[in-house]
Every structure is written in C-alpha cells, then in structure tokens.
Amino acid sequence: MLSDNTVLKMHDLRLNAMAEKFREQLESNQYIELSFEERIGILVDAEWLTRRNARMTRLIKTANFSMGDACVENVDYHPDRELSKSMILKLASCNYIQESRNILLLGAAGSGKTYLANAFGLKAVQNFYSVKYIRLPELFTELAISRSIGTMRKTLQQYQQVKLLILDEWLLMPLRDSESRDLLEIIEPRYRKASTIFCSQLNVAGWHEKIGDTLLADAICDRIVHDSYTIKIGGKDSMRKRKGLCE
Does 96 have pLDDT greater than 60? Predict the structure, then answer.
C-alpha cells in the first residue's frame, strides 16, 4: 500500500516520530475532520518536539552537572546570604551568554556556589546552549591524560568552544606553571566569544598568588574579571548544614 511505503520512507529518513503519528492518523477516525494542513502540522509538531527533547537530553548529559536537580527557582534567599534576587533572575535569562560575559561566584565552602552554578547551567541548556561543568582539579587531570596520549589539541578545543563552561573549585590550590599555561590556552580563545562561570572561595585579589607566574596571572585575570558579573554569597552557616537542619 502507498501509506505503508510512505511510513517506510519516513523511517528511512529518520522521521520516526512523524511516521508513528502518520500511522496513528491512518488508524484513527479522530483526524478525519481535520484539514490537510492541520494533519501535516500535527506530523511536523510530533517530529519537532521529539528532536527538541532529544537535543536537550544530549546537552544535559554532555554538561555533566554535579547537581542535576539544581534550579534557579529553588535558590535560597535567606537574608544572611546577601543574594540579589533581581540579579539572579537577570542572569537566569542567559543574556550574559549572548554578551559573552562571565560570572564570578565567590563565597566560603558550602555557601552554595556549586548549586547556583549548576542552576545557571541548566537554564543555559534549556535555552539550547552547550554547557560543560567540571572541577578545576579534574580539568587538569583530564588535560594531563590527553597530553600523554596525544589528544591535547582535541581536548583543549572542547573546552575552548563550549558556549558555557563552569569551572568549580577555581584556584582552590596553587597552580604549577604548566597548569597556568593550560588555563590560558582555554581562557584566551573564549575571551568575548563564550561565557565561563568561576566558583571560588577566594576573592579576586587572591587569584594572582594562586596562579603564581606574574605574567600568566595578569593575562588570565585580565581576560576574566573585566567582563564578569560578580556574586558574593554570604552566610555564616554552610548550606549543607542548613539544609540538613531543615530535613
């Protein structure tokens, strides 16, 4: 039958959702009164929605979030955290990504930097931006392995080109010169072309000492600080402790 051939051709073209919806239309009387344009619209919508959902699933998987349930709507605005709700909601719109600007999340251990970074990352994915979350120590390990097996260029390109890079535990430990150079190799190509979220326990003034080499520190910080939104998270109690007390 012609309809069977059409379904086979749809599958051959990888229009699987459209094929299933077309078969449903053939087998159901509920579509009889619809116009040709309306029935075609239903087929296209089915394929579009399926591909859209699949794309978002891939983006979430690739992002490798450490807190997959983080969301801006659940951010804790307890007074002692000194968070600006208007600023959080502004950044949740992802305009900073369109502007290729960065976000600096500064606060003590347990203040909720990682949660907020993941929440911003999820908003970016929902707007179909590519995102990658990684702890800085893990990044250096990955770069060292890729250098040893000859895939350094490919690994660097992945971090240079992702639209939103989230670097957690930023400068928690002093860097070796080789690590500082690797960071510059990632940050330089991203300057005014992509966005990065830096989660750090240190204020910006303490970054130079952790980076070490003065010239490298100047080059790295100059490409980060001047195009960044800064959020300083206050609070005496760790969010882990606070959440634990509430549960």
Answer: yes
Q: Starting at the edge strand that comes first in sequence, how are the strands of the sheet with 228-233 ordered?
A: 131-135, 164-168, 195-200, 102-107, 228-233
Q: Residue 147 CB: number of other CB atoms within 10 A?
A: 15
Q: How confident is the model at residue 3 (pLDDT cuts 50, 70, 90)?
A: confident
Q: In terms of CATH, what superfamily is 64-246?
A: P-loop containing nucleotide triphosphate hydrolases (3.40.50.300)
DSSP line for 72-101 = GGG----GGG---HHHHHHHHTTHHHHTT-
CA-to-CA separations, 28 to 1, 18, 23, in angstroms, rounded = 17, 15, 9
- Ranges in the chain annotated CATH 3.40.50.300: 64-246
pLDDT in tens, 30-74: 998 999 999 999 999 999 999 999 999 999 999 999 999 999 999
* pLDDT tens digits for range 180-214: 999 999 999 999 999 999 999 999 999 999 999 89
Q: How many CB atoms lie within 10 A of CB 199?
A: 27
Q: Which conformational region is residue 6 in: left (phi greater than 0), alpha (psi within -120 to 50 degrees), or beta?
A: alpha
Contacts of 182 (CB under 8 A, 6+ apart): 140, 143, 156
Distance in angstroms (rounded) separating the CA atoms of residues 100 and 195: 5
d(CA 103, CA 172): 17
Please say if the pLDDT value at position 161 is more than 80: yes
